[in-house]
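User: Please predict the structure of the protein below. I'd like the answer in structure-token form so I can feed it into my own downstream comparison script.

Assistant: Understood. Taking the following sequence of 717 residues as input:
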Amino acid sequence: PEGRVVCWSRGAEELLKWTAEEMLGRPLLEIVDNPDLAAALGDAISAGPRYSDRIEFDVRTKAGEPVPLMLFLRTIDHEGVVAGRVGFGLDIRQRREAEEARAEATHLLRYRNRQQEAVVHLGERALRGADLDNLLKDGAVTVASALGVKVSSIYELTPDARTAVLRASTGWSRGALGSRHPVEESSWFDFMLRSSEPLQSDTHDEDRFRTDDVVRTAGLERGIAVRLEGREGVVGFLTAMADTEHQFSAEDLRFLQSVANVLAAALDRARVSEEIEHRALHDPLTGLPNRTLLLDRLAHALARIEGRPEQVAVLFVDLDRFKRINDTLGQHNGDQVLIEVGRRLRGGMRAAETIARLGGDEFTVLCEDIVDPDEALRVSDRLTRLLAAPIRAGDHDVVLTASIGIAMGGAGDEPDRLLGDADVAMYRAKTLGRGRVLQFDQEMRSSRMARMEIEEALHRALPGGEFRLHYQPQIELKTGRCRSAEVLLRWEHPEWGLVPNTQFVEVAEDSGLIADIGAWVIDQACADLALLRRHHPQFSISVNVSPLQVAETDLLRIIGENLRAHDIPPDALVLEMTESRLLEDLAGAARILAPVRALGVRVAIDDFGTGYSTLSYLTQLTVDEVKIDRTFTSGLGTEPGASAVIAGIVAMAEALGLRIVAEGVESEAQAATLRDVGCHAGQGYLWSAAYPISELNGWLRTRERDGVISRTGRSEF
């Protein structure tokens, strides 16, 4: 029953290093390594006569090393009595090692499958456009769970690569999220930026970079980290850290990199989306909010004061005479001025104020939660002071002023209407002399409603055939002959009757309708001129064109097509542009008018003398005639020095070889003075009002047949 050894083979000696002398008579159980197996073996030895079995157990060699054996036991039976047991041992070390290897491989396979499934799941969520914050959080949880570590963190690198922001983490306190870490020399962030290889680190003996105190305090022993590589470089880092002597394998690093690739792609898409959204909502030159974002914030501000007495204020800011900066200093310097204006205005804004650029030289300020209406005026004063200091543009110092319009609004107001009201107030301020501030009032509201009504009617006027052309004759002062006329546009509304030009031309320009209207005027005027020239072959006409019409249409093509279609020589057509509008964009006007003159069409400056005329400006434009404004003509005979002023204008024009036409001639004395100082022609009620083409033709025939020309050129009947 004690299981003493009575026979010990040579094979047993070689395997276990116990000699027969050492084992004979000794209980076998003394060298069995596992107590439980020793007990089971003892039971087998003590079993009845019919017992036979196989038992797998470990025995110790003489040196104390365990050896796995498969023991086959057989009973020695003598006449029904157990005389002993015979055991044959089989060395199963190779089989045991193979089984353990298979088990390890199975475990590792399952482990890697779980990691791959985690990466696939994370990738699917990223492709479905999951919320970025939630995706990053799930990424950190996935890494910590799959690798069995205490801490996993995801850092996003700022675009300037100077700061790493903790975006998601497991193992750190919630308050750590959003913490910003400088990417300093000797920091692990800097090390990762300079090294493209994954990082493995032991905090006890790390000497490649400085280990954070918080890591040591948390008792973190080992860590690995990889970079989040975006399309344009590193966008962040992914880390895994353990508080034990954790051994990270190459497979662990590959898994970490796979997760990092998914998260990097998500961060990249988010950045692209943010960039697209930023561009859609911000001005590309100054970086300020644009009209879309301003209107959105204005809508939210109005909704927020629902049921409250507070108001919002919209300030429309337009830089005065900014086009001159572009014309004289170039667009690059003009852009630099706008950037500096944006920087100053942004720096002068308070928490409840938004500065936006609407385009060109127009800026807008939104002021929220206004209690005192005068607060908007104080803001406008602040804006004026911000713009007062000269701005350096190239080699020049530019001094700016601004016209500002203010509109106040409350709950229920429409954002577009408020912005439009401020625009109207700004425009009124600019017309009063620039550098002014005006608040939108009821009179402006009525004017704006009238403009809107006119604009709506203008859209129907051209297709409805409501426009007419009238012609005012121009008289040669020396001979009294009429060889030209100015084309005047008339609008005959079916309900309002004749609408004055002063009420609709500006509206047509602002609405963009002037291009189509102007093209119609040129076409109809050329058709009328063709009829006139059948009986008056030397006759010519002058057509007023708007600078906006010139800028927004293919003027040269329109003129050329009409001249050819109606068989009119180019010098029979004169294009008139007002002096004040020419001076707003002198360089642009010169570029556009030069090819018009090259076509053979003549060019005239209308309202000459009202725009601070100078010889230097005249030399920049190639024109054929000037038209003296009626304000100078009306002073002849009543205002001292008026004739001297006109004589000076005539002398200046003659020196440049220009034809001179005086407008607004109403008396023989005025006509005589104009003829005496050398003016070539005149037009006004002294001779004729403006006629439709049919009446002008009859007037010309009657004048030629019956008229007697006085010394002033007036017909007498």
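That's the full token string. The mean pLDDT is 84.
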